[in-house]
């Protein structure tokens, strides 16, 4: 997410459900596939939300970001996902320009139904990895998943399995505040 502030401690203490935590009504299971939940970061800048990291022992890592940019996303404009995915990709390219990555190539980007997706090839510290960005709107917030893996052979399948498993969790979740739901989104 471009323009985010330095992280602070979580604003709302996560609620432990026994098999995971719930933060601001969003579920975060202890593990998704072979990735285990790590830390939570809350961003100070208004509308920037929070993120939860997931790590595998080898090859893969993911971050799930939940934010609203101070927008009313209860009934988002039809092209809101496309606009936000453009911003997400620009932030990744800017990170490359600032030296976080050696190279970034956007291989594909699309918006289908209620999900925007991008597949990239990223080089960091001389190592190539497949990187994916998935974006939807759920419970009045953007939900962005960044999934990266050095497993180039099976990376896309693993990224999509992670996305599908988390989105399934979202479909079961009850938001803290019931926004007017737009049926096109989760």
Q: What characteristics describe this protein?
A:
disordered C terminus; disordered N terminus; alpha+beta; Nuclear Transport Factor 2, Chain: A; 186 residues; 9-stranded antiparallel beta sheet
Chart the SSEs and their pairings.
Blueprint: E1 7-8, E2 15-16, E3 20-23, E4 26-29, E5 31-32, E6 35-43, E7 50-55, E8 60-67, H1 80-97, E9 103-112, E10 115-124, E11 127-138, E12 141-149, H2 155-172
Antiparallel strand pairs: 1-6, 2-3, 3-4, 5-6, 6-7, 7-8, 8-12, 9-10, 10-11, 11-12
Question: How do you describe this structure in short?
Answer:
By secondary structure, the protein is α+β, with helices and mostly antiparallel strands. It has helices at 80-97, 155-172, and strands spanning 7-8, 15-16, 20-23, 26-29, 31-32, 35-43, 50-55, 60-67, 103-112, 115-124, 127-138, 141-149.
Write up this protein.
This protein is an alpha+beta fold. It has a single domain, classed as Roll (Nuclear Transport Factor 2, Chain: A), CATH 3.10.450.630. It is built from 2 helices and 12 strands, in the order E-E-E-E-E-E-E-E-H-E-E-E-E-H. The strands form 2 sheets. Strands 1, 5, 6, 7, 8, 9, 10, 11 and 12 form a 9-stranded antiparallel β-sheet that branches. A 3-stranded antiparallel β-sheet has the order 2-3-4. A hairpin with a 2-residue loop joins strand 10 and strand 11. The longest helix is centred in the middle third of the chain and has 18 residues. It is globular, with a radius of gyration of 16 Å. The two termini are 21 Å apart. The N terminus and C terminus are likely disordered.
């Amino acid at each position: 997410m471009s323009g985010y502030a330095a992280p602070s401690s979580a604003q709302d203490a996560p609620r432990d459900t026994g098999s995971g935590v719930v933060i601001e009504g969003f579920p975060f299971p202890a593990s998704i596939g072979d990735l285990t939940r790590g830390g939570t970061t809350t961003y100070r800048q208004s509308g920037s939300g929070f993120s939860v990291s997931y790590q595998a022992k080898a090859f893969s890592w993911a971050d799930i970001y939940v934010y609203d940019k101070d927008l009313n996303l209860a009934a988002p404009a039809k092209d809101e996902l496309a606009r936000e995915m453009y911003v997400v990709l620009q932030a990744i390219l800017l990170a490359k320009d600032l030296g976080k990555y050696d190279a970034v190539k956007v291989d594909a980007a699309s918006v289908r139904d209620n999900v925007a997706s991008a597949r990239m090839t990223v080089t960091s510290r001389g190592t190539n990895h497949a990187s994916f960005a998935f974006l939807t709107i759920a419970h009045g917030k953007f939900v962005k998943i960044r999934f990266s893996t050095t497993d180039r052979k099976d990376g896309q399948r693993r990224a999509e399995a992670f996305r599908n498993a988390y989105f399934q969790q979202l479909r079961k979740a009850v938001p803290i505040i019931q926004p007017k739901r737009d049926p096109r989104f989760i």
